[in-house]
Write a structure and sequence with these properties.
This protein is an alpha/beta fold. It has six helices and eight strands, in the order αβαβαβββαβαβαβ. Helix 2 packs across helix 3.
């Protein structure tokens, strides 16, 4: 997939936590898939996680785009778990998993895992975002010095608005 100019500018940014406030039809999912695959194939044993508002959203919005993008490098695919393993540039494998945010809220899904990269899509719709992020997902990035991308269309002055403004107080964030 070829990224348009604005997507390419975002992809080039090396900030640890990137917050994308984009309108509909911008190509947020395409960019997210490109980023996830790029991070996964860079080295062996990487773990990449994608969160949509619900598991059904992850399946409907992202799964087919991801599988098509990786069709030549998939070594393992589990459609019921929404997981694929992809071949890496150093001859190993890395895992990409898709989840619904509701699983973070209801069951603490993701707790205890180590992630290299996390994408949170449509963040403005997440319930209890700060609890899920601070208590469950952010700690999964610590030991691997992982990064995250937060994507959403705006929905007023809510937690996504606060996340978007986090760059004003935290140098690891870029909006």
């Amino acid at each position: 997939m070829i990224l348009h100019q604005a997507q390419a500018q975002i992809a080039k940014d090396k900030s640890r936590f990137r917050v994308l406030n984009c309108g509909r039809r911008f190509g947020k999912t395409v960019l997210a898939v490109e980023e996830m695959v790029g991070k996964a194939i860079k080295a062996s044993d990487r773990r990449v996680a994608y969160f949509a508002p619900t598991r059904d959203d992850a399946r409907e919005i992202t799964w087919n785009i991801l599988v098509k993008k990786c069709e030549d490098i998939i070594s393992y695919k589990n459609e019921s778990l929404l997981q694929i393993k992809v071949a890496t540039t150093d001859g190993g494998e890395s895992m990409i998993s898709l989840y619904g945010w509701e699983s973070v809220q209801e069951r603490g899904k993701g707790r205890g895992l180590a992630n290299d990269f996390i994408v949170c899509d449509e963040v403005a719709t997440y319930r209890n975002f700060w609890v899920g992020w601070n208590e469950v997902l952010a700690p999964t990035l610590i030991d691997r010095k992982g990064s995250a991308m937060f994507i959403s269309t705006p929905k007023g002055f809510n937690h996504f608005y606060d996340l978007h403004n986090k760059e004003l107080t935290d140098k690891d964030f870029k909006s």
